[in-house]
Each structure stands twice: as structure tokens, then as C-alpha cells.
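Hi, here's the filled form for the chain we discussed.

Project: internal
Contact: R.S.
Residues: 369
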Amino acid sequence: MPAGLERLLDDLNPAQREAVTYGEGPLLVLAGAGSGKTRVIAYRIAWLTASQGMSPRNLLAVTFTNKAAGEMARRVEGLLRPVGVGAPLIATFHSACVRILRQHGKHIGLPSHFTIYDEDDRLALVKECMKEGELAERSFTPSGAVHRISYMKNQMISVADALRDARGPWEKKAALVYSRYEKRMKEVGAVDFDDLLLCTVRLYETVPEALAWYRGLWRHMLVDEYQDTNRAQYKMIRLLTAEHRNICVVGDPDQSIYKFRGADIRNVLEFEQDYPGTKVVRLEQNYRSTQRILSLASAVIAHNVQRKDKTLWTENASTRSRRATASHCSPSPPSLRSTSAARPPAGSRSSPGSSASSRPTGPRSRLPR
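And the returned structure, exactly as it came back:
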């Protein structure tokens, strides 16, 4: 083990170190607010590659926003650059799917040059579909139709299922717009953000060779904010990791706030059922707040029915500054060679394979932030 890495591990609290150095197999990290979860993910990536000898190309880390992926990539690069180890692919779910589909989408009938529709493009097309079918009215707006289509895709509801199961005039109209929308998208060789996830799942489910290739490529997978994953993301993760089971997810049911976007809290609550033998680590030490604030928040959260127990605590005194107490969740981790912060040179950029900034160019290729 590099000496710098040993010093780096000494800087972690016991729970953080336990999560970072856990070996193979499923790992669930229940990370309370302000407990240094991003630090744990970055250090675990560094530990797997610099200490355990894993090739960076065999590891995939995914999160939800370009900002979060970029921050994670900067931390990992700062840790690994001094010892000459490259960073793995750290990306959003959507940008990782773009890479997969550009390379293998042809196997499911997707052109390699497919266009990605952003939210404005999708709304404009839905308006056209509604106008053609004379479906627009005050109670059924284009924005409402867009949200409904996105919801159905996040729940992996096909057009056929939507048409069959529609109940009432509103749902029937939404299903008709969904059908027209999908037909038009196929005609122009385009996908929307939801399709990126759905098409990747379909590729894995229908092309065994592609699934086997990616299982062999990514032998370890790390997922941030797991409580915010939807059904399609859940299936994609399960398909990739069912064989080797080297999956580390970091999440907190108490911070699940995206149900309206399709997030399914059961994904984190039932993780131990999905992966028997899971190691569970709780990050309960908070570095941002005083104990008074944590106690009040815990009293409110305790009323939640669907949650996993954890008790947040802190060593912070009420008058102690955040600057003096943030070392264990600092945004500037020490490098493997020294305890000083390692930052990329001014003007440098991450490699396309290591950050979420890698995405198709063009006016219709913007990934969600």
C-alpha cells in the first residue's frame, strides 16, 4: 500500500475508513447529511485502484448531475495523479448511457448518430403531436403531457401498456400523445433523456453479448444518491452487477425527495434483499451542524415510516466554526503523496473517459444538470 494512501486512510473516521476499505461484494453506505459521503466515494475509488491494483478502466462510478460528477472526478484525480494512476469513468447515468449507446445502440436499431432531444425539444414535439390529434385543452396541457410521458418512461411503461391500461379521458389522451411522440422520435432517429436509460436497459436485456461485455469491463460499480434512482436506473444497475455483485451504493432514505421524478425509495430500503450478504456501514458523524440542530432534525425524521435507522451526532460545539470542523468532508482531499490539497493545473481538463463533461456536442445534446 502506498505510504500516502496509508496517511490518507488515517485521516478518515472509523466508519468512513470501514466503508472505504471494504473488499469485494455488495456494500450499502447509509450516509447522513454532512457525513462526508462524497469523500468516502472518492477515497474508495482511490483505495480500489491504488491499493488493490484494480485497473481504472474496470470501475464505473455514477451520480445524477454533471456538477456532482465533475466534483467527484476532480477529487479522485487529485488523489491518484501523484502516484501516476489514472481515474476511472465517473459520469452521470445519462452520459454513461450515451457512451454505451453510441458504441452498441445499433444492436437495438438505434443509429450511432442519434440526436438527443432536450426538454425544449421534447415540449415542442409534444405540442405538435397534440395539435395533429386535436388533443389540446385547458385540462390537458403540453407540459402536463410531457410530465406524464416522462413518468411512464421512468416506470418503464410501454406505449402498448399505456394505451391498454389508460383509465379516463385524461389518461387516454396522454397515451395517444405518447404513441404519436414515440412514432415521431423513431422517424427522426432521436431519443430523449429518459430514452437513454430505457435503451440501455433494453440493450442489456436483449443483447446478451453486450451485457457480458460491460459486465467484464466494469468489475466494480459505485452509485451516489442511490435513494434517487428510478426503475430504469435500478434495472440497469442490477443487470450490470448481478454476476460479480461488486456494487457500492451510497444513499439516505431520509433525503429522498424526487419521487415526483420517478425515484423509488424501495431501491435503497430493499437493497439487502436484492443483494444477500450486504455489508452495511452507517456514516452518522456530522461535520456541518451543531447537536441541537441534529437533534431537532432527527426528531422530525423519526416520524418517517419508510427509513433505515441511524443516529446523527457531532463533536461540534455550538460556537465552533464550520471551517474548523469540516476536515472529514472537505472538498479538497489530500493526495496520496502528501496531505496538501492536489489541484489540477490551471487550464487543464479531465480526460473524456473520466468525467461527466464527455457528451455529444450540438444544440440537441445537452445532458440534464
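Let me know if anything looks off before we file it.
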